[in-house]
Amino acid sequence: MLDGRVLRSLHTRRAVELTKSLVRAQSINPPGNEKLASDVVSSFLDEIGINYVEQSVSGDRHNVVATLKGNRGSRSLLLTGHLDVVPPGDERLWVKDPFSGEEVDGQIYGRGSTDAKGCLGAMLCTVEAVVESGVELSGDLIFAAVVGEETDGLGIKHLVKGLRPDMAVVGEPTQLRVGNAHKGIMRFRIKVSGKAAHASLPDQGVNAISGMAKVILGLDDLAAELRSRGGASPPTLVVSTITGGIKDNVVPPNCTITVDRRLAVGEDSKGAEHEVNEAIRAALGSTPMNADVAPYLSAAPAQTSPDELIVRCARDAVRDVSGKDMGLYSFEAYCDMGPLVDLAGTKTIILGPGSLVGSHVANEVVSIEEVEDAAKIYSLIVTCSVCA
């Protein structure tokens, strides 16, 4: 069993109430309205008497960062989660107000409950327990609520300009499994060019939409091949948007799609781009059309060795709280782990309540039991990694 000094001072119900308050703060991104949620965080830190810094990131968007100093200057631990949430989408699909933060049948309801305000609530609860326990910290414990994770990672990139924590826990919905890796990401904008003509004379034009249909089928075949590579978290490809044509009586001279390609650990952007180009070349074959392929976003996969202290502490903590070792997990999406590993060299894991399947969907909920267990796990990780 791990040292339970912080755990004994934990008030897990606080994590639940904090999560509900955070959900009620409509921190939608885009456009980036995180201030309502950052105010919840700073008010709580004021309430429990912990000093913090508000880092101005862009306009009225700021990270909230609190540091509990250790007395030996040894390894440091960062607990971090994001303040922003995706828009609720069509609110007619929600059975309740998406920002109600209601507690229903053992769950907290609303946008951001799973992704990822349950994590923030549990982390704040942990920080409070560390202070109340009076435990001696050998290294710094840093808490950061950051902006911009759902779009460009602006908040975490700003944070690591002046901070290089040795270890980090990124709060994302992993169903309390320890994620020691996540996928990278590439996005492409692909334009097929044809030739306009009157729709009554289609042979005088070259239909770019028809050409793009061939491209999409080729990319679907590539996506199936990627999935067949197997592994715990295989690479993926999705055609995500499409636009094209001029008018309903004109042969369309152009069509554009965007493609989301997730990179498994071990893949790189050059290889992924080559595969996309080859699939498009084969799909268009001898047609008179050509395609312009423009990558506009690229971020590498990230991984932390299973032998690192933060991974071992987290696995032990999950086992102590859940009664079982859930093993290691590769997070399917890209998150703030990437900049922490790539820019700061931080040994990072991803861990939190909720499921990625339940994120970015209508009627989002998170289990109260998982939020409370997350607070217990975070508390044990702190004790294991930075307590004297």
Radius of gyration based on Cα positions: 23 Å
Report the end-to-end length measured between terminal Cα atoms: 17 Å
Largest sheet: 6 strands, mixed
Instruction: Please indicate the percent range of residues in DSSP E strands (runs of 2 or more).
Output: 25-35%
Any idea what the shape is?
A: elongated
Helix/strand/pairing class, anyone?
A: alpha+beta
- How many domains? 2
Give the helices and strands as they follow along the chain. HHEEEEEHEHEEEEHEEEHEEHEHEEH
Instruction: Please list the strands of the largest sheet in the order they lie side by side.
Output: 1-2-6-3-7-17
CATH architecture of the largest domain: 3-Layer(aba) Sandwich
Q: Report the top-level CATH class of the largest domain.
A: Alpha Beta
Helix content: 25-40%
Structure description:
- It is built from 9 helices and 18 strands.
- It is an alpha+beta fold.
- The strands form 5 sheets. Strands 1-2-6-3-7-17 form a 6-stranded mixed beta sheet, with helices on both faces. A 4-stranded antiparallel beta sheet has the order 11-13-9-14, with helices on one face. Strands 4-5-18 form a 3-stranded antiparallel beta sheet.
- The mean pLDDT is 96.
